[in-house]
Amino acid sequence: MVGKTGRPVGDSDARERLIVEARKLFVSLPYSKVSTRMIASRADVNVALIRYYFASKAGLYEAMLRETITPIHAQLKVTLNKGDFASIGDLMRTYYRIMAPNPDMPKLIARAMMMEPADLQRQTMEKIFNEVARPAIEVMFLQLQKQGVLRGDVCPDKARMSFISLMVFPFLIPPSLLTLQNIEMDETYLAELAEHNVNLLVRGLTMPKEENKSC
């Protein structure tokens, strides 16, 4: 809705600040407990700017989700175009890099997907997932199978599940369990974990290079 006549007076970065503060509030509080006034106050902007930029709280919620995953969506496109395991590794690295400063975002996604089917949060999440992630993730492991990159005893569907699990689960582990394991889940650790998981996928799912060449 940018460019609408009668724009309220506000800073040029007001929209970005609203996205940032909305992300913080939506991941820490139930959707029903987050008000537009609360978001605007945290962003230090006029609440009218939410209507101007996003039309409503629901519009801001959807925009926040979409803009958070935009870099992941871009890497998904690269992965589909290249169709190799190196680009899948880059996809995992991108996901970890985006989620590291927003570690509660996967919890928000999981929470929304456990809502009733008619719930606005779940509908919004499913809409974005079906548009952005689901088709690409389904296709990329089938591509690897057709190219002879996957090991012969690896099922593409289960490879996809392993990939999703390695990406998502570290962000869903309860902090108390991390403490018991003496793990500090900071950005450095997550970057190292991304590399570890990429190596795990490559060694567990792909054909050795010499075998792949002879096919």
TrEMBL record:
Ranges for domain HTH tetR-type? 12-72
Q: Which SUPFAM superfamilies match?
A: Homeodomain-like (SSF46689), Tetracyclin repressor-like, C-terminal domain (SSF48498)
In terms of InterPro entries, this protein maps to: Homeodomain-like_sf (IPR009057), HTH-type_TetR-like_transc_reg (IPR050109), HTH_TetR (IPR001647), Tet_transcr_reg_TetR-rel_C_sf (IPR036271)
Q: Which keywords accompany this UniProt record?
A: DNA-binding
Q: Which Pfam families does the UniProt record give?
A: TetR_N
Instruction: Give the DNA-binding residue ranges.
Output: 35-54
Q: Name one GO molecular function term.
A: transcription cis-regulatory region binding
Give the protein name, as stated in the record.
Putative transcriptional regulator
